[in-house]
Amino acid sequence: MSRWCVIRVVLGVFSVILVATPASSQVVATRDVDYRAEVDFENGKDRLDIHMPEGAEMAPVIVFFHGGALRAGSKGRDGALLSERFLPAGMGIVSANYRLSPGVMHPAHMEDAAAAFAWVVKNIKRYGGDPENVYVAGHSAGAYLAALLALDPRYLAKHDIELASIRGTIPISPFLYVEETAADRPKDVWGENPADWLQASVTPYITAGKGPMLLIYADGDDEWRRDQNDRFGEAMRAAGNRARVVEVPNRTHTSIMSAMNADDDQIGGLVRRFLGRR
């Protein structure tokens, strides 16, 4: 039998869903909210889902971006996994789509990530979230978007939002150094110019005064990815920032997300401690 009992109420272009968990608690899921009302992207790439505990008031919120090499993926699966893991602890989850290559190139993915985060800061209070307690996270390519969003102020500045509006950042198995990664990736993501790769990387923006980060990767991640995370953590700390890097055992690049609700999961505890919620 399904673990979820779902009641859907359609309101205009998005739907509100009451989800009853096995413990009889309820969460409210508001799906397909248009976070870029000024445009209309195909396949709902300008839409996000909001998962909140029923009756939430000023709950901390995690804005999450899915993985898929900036070429694939969508908000649905990860949003459901994260909701099951974190809503019982009183946290809200916002899972956002963004445009994908080859339809667009950098910085379009980042522009969408910034627009989604800005929408949440400006609107989440109406859904029971705390606009001053919003975190950003992601897996793989989505974790890269989260990390760069927290480092390069230009993207949020277009929405009159400062980096300090990001309470903390949780990249899960990201790539980070685009000047290294782009050489082996399709050139319709960041182009062919190494100078452009560097500007799309975290490298120029590792400076003092950045917000706290919790970087998590799997022991089964590729060595180059684990190395990038470790080097990035060291560079952030050397610049005077708070950055913790944790390797999770018995996981692969895929199962670090898909097994998030397994009995031996460690991500839940790591994230709750990072948010200060024991």
Helix-strand blueprint:
Layout: E1 5-11, E2 14-20, E3 26-34, E4 47-53, E5 59-65, H1 76-86, E6 92-96, H2 108-123, E7 129-139, H3 141-151, H4 154-157, E8 169-172, H5 178-181, H6 187-190, H7 194-199, E9 213-218, H8 223-238, E10 243-248, H9 255-258, H10 267-274
Helix pairs in contact: 2-3
Describe the structure.
The chain has 278 residues and is an alpha/beta fold. The chain has one domain (5-274): Alpha/Beta hydrolase fold, catalytic domain (Rossmann fold). The chain has ten helices and ten strands. The protein has helices at 76-86, 108-123, 141-151, 154-157, 178-181, 187-190, 194-199, 223-238, 255-258, 267-274, and strands at residues 5-11, 14-20, 26-34, 47-53, 59-65, 92-96, 129-139, 169-172, 213-218, 243-248. A ten-stranded mixed β-sheet has the order 1-2-3-4-6-5-7-8-9-10, with helices on both faces. Strand 2 and strand 3 form a beta hairpin. Helix 2 crosses helix 3 (141-151). It is globular. The chain starts with a strand and ends with a helix.
